[in-house]
Amino acid sequence: MSTTRRKFLQSSAALGLITVMGDNVMAATQSAGKLNMVEADAVMLQALMRSGKTTSLAIVRAYLARIRAIDKSGPRINSVIELNPDAISIARERDRERKAGKVRGPLHGIPVLIKDNIATMDAMQSTAGSLALVGAKAPRDAFIVTRLREAGAVILGKTNLSEWANFRSTRSTSGWSSRGGLTKNPYALDRNTSGSSSGSGAAMAASLATLAVGTETDGSIVSPANANGIVGFKPTLGLVSRDGIVPIAHSQDTAGPMTRTVADAALLLTVLAATDARDAATKEASERAINYTKFLDRDGLKGKRIGVVKSQFGGRNDLASAVVEKALDVLKAQGATLIDVPELPNASKYGQSEYDVLLYEFKADMAAYLAEFAPNLPIKSLADIMALNEKHRDRVMQHFAQEHMARAAAKGGLEERVYRDALANNLKFSREEGIDKALLDNKLDALVAPSGSPAWLTDFIRGDNSGGGFSSAAAVAGYPHITVPAGFVSGLPCGISFVGTAWSEPKLIAMAYAFEQASKHRRAPEYLKTALI
Q1: How far is Cα 527 from Cα 263, in angstroms, rounded to an integer?
Q2: pLDDT at 372
Q3: Nearest-5° angle of CA 503, CA 241, CA 250?
């Protein structure tokens, strides 16, 4: 870690680096004796704590009250699978530290929700939404949880998810887990949250915490961010550690920020990004990681050449396409030059090989995770998980089965030629012959497209009915991808995606922030029973 970055994380003076606030700076100030947490961001809350107008304890209590009112009663969006019973005491300790002159950094005292596939060595479960992992005793925190705690964040609780990060069934319903039930979309309660970071997306939309962490293998951050009208940031593979995260596939898995603003995403990424000795993929992370808030530039689109991936417009995604077409005008008005890219080169050449790699790695990576993070449980493999699911079929498979797991369990080891060829194919056609080719051939800074369709009706009989999305190329390549709210269709949010080459987070943050500030499409949900007609 560089000296400059260490000082940023450890010094309260670093708050001065974050100079941009939302228009409503007082959104979190006292109102009728209570904190108003709707749309409150980390900079606002940190300023209020620094001035003595509020405390971490008051902020935590205000979020807990919102969770009781919105998540557990009222509209019952059911995004938080478990609360941290130690959150109050941690907040008190952060306040004592502040009073004693010790402020760990910009996340000091800030409540964060993390997805329930991220291990914590505390009173909370770490289950990936499954009954199979209930009772697992993690021997330590996941690396990114340690980073959050060291930065002074308050882990408020864990969010529900599509069970096993949506890699159990070919006919799953996103947002549902056998442990947590169904998470509902705050914009229309009969609509889906998408997945697998369903709870993180819905909780951020509903202002149930300041920040949230999601995970993605292919679309699991950016798709629920799109469906829930928030910012989702999937970083370059290897910038953020996967240690202690229930896996699907090490060649594509990563954690990343899910927030209401690009500024908060940049702040959270600054804390999460670091080299972890337990995760070899992160060996370059500390050299690459910087204070990402320095790139929050309202002029970040000026002079940029951006490729518009036309194959992602129209068809089943026509409603979102119309929204993003208007967003393209904003990009141009902010000084960007747009170049049509008919389609990503070779995008059709890694669909099946991606799936093959996920199956092979799911089997191997799950066994390794269980051995280290669930040593007290009798389950040691995917086969054991499947057997337990069958034993509790009435609770686990009431809506869909476990086809992905069965196919993965039947695969051999990672030494097999089929696996190695599939992985090589993925990397070749998604990277140098895919995203990088499109960028280099057209002299582009980034690619843009609709992030995905508006949220679909939740349907347990037929499963998900997504209109498709723009996640796969960046997911397979391991390249960064940020989605930002771009507008609405019948009251349902739609996002615009910015995708770049490896380690291009600074450039993407600048462009995404400039678009966000020029368009300001983020708005709080109203918890309607159904979408507007």
Answers
A1: 25
A2: 98
A3: 90
Q: Would you list the DSSP string of 310-348? A: GGGSSGGGHHHHHHHHHHHHHHHHTTPEEEEESS-TTGG
pLDDT at residue number 316: 82
CA atoms within 13 A of residue 473's CA, in its CB half-sphere: 34
pLDDT at 25: 32
CA 280 to chain centre: 22
Whether 292 and 269 have beta carbons less than 8 Å apart is answered as yes
Phi, psi torsion values for 259, nearest 5 degrees: -145, 175
pLDDT tens-place string over residues 162-199: 999 999 999 999 999 999 999 999 999 999 999 999 99
Distance CA(148)–CA(157), nearest Å, equals 13
Distance CA 408, CA 404 (A): 6
Residues marked active site are found at: 115, 196, 220
Tell me, what's the pLDDT at 315? 87
Dihedral of the CA atoms 192, 194, 200, 203 (nearest 10)? Answer: -20
Element of type H or E holding 129: none
Contacts of 119 (CB under 8 A, 6+ apart): 126, 138, 140, 141, 142, 145, 244, 245, 246, 373
CB 272 within 8 A of CB 255: yes
E strands, 211-269, are 211-216, 231-234, 254-259
**DSSP secondary structure, 429-498, as one string:** HHIIIIIHHHHHHTT-SEEEEE-BPPPPBP-TTT------BS-HHHHHHT--EEEEEEEEETTEEEEEEE
Q: Are 467 and 316 in contact (CB under 8 A)?
A: yes
What crossing angle do the helices spanning 505-519 and 318-333 adopt, rounded to 10°? 90
pLDDT in the model for residue 367: 98
First-to-last CA distance in the chain?
52
**Cα 52 from Cα 227, distance rounded (Å):** 37
What are the φ/ψ torsions at residue 529 (nearest 5 degrees)?
A: -70, -35
pLDDT along the chain (533 residues), means of 10: 45 35 38 77 97 98 98 98 98 98 98 98 98 98 98 99 98 98 98 98 98 98 98 99 98 98 98 98 98 98 98 91 98 98 98 98 98 98 98 97 98 98 98 98 98 97 92 98 98 98 98 99 98 85
Where are any strands of DSSP class E within 53-153? 80-83, 111-115
Map tokens 């922030």 to a residue: 513
DSSP lists the bridge partners of residue 112 as: 155, 211
Are the C-beta atoms of 107 and 267 separated by less than 8 Å? yes
Is it true that the peptide bond before 196 is cis, omega within 30 degrees of 0?
A: yes
Number of H helices, E strands in the chain: 19, 15
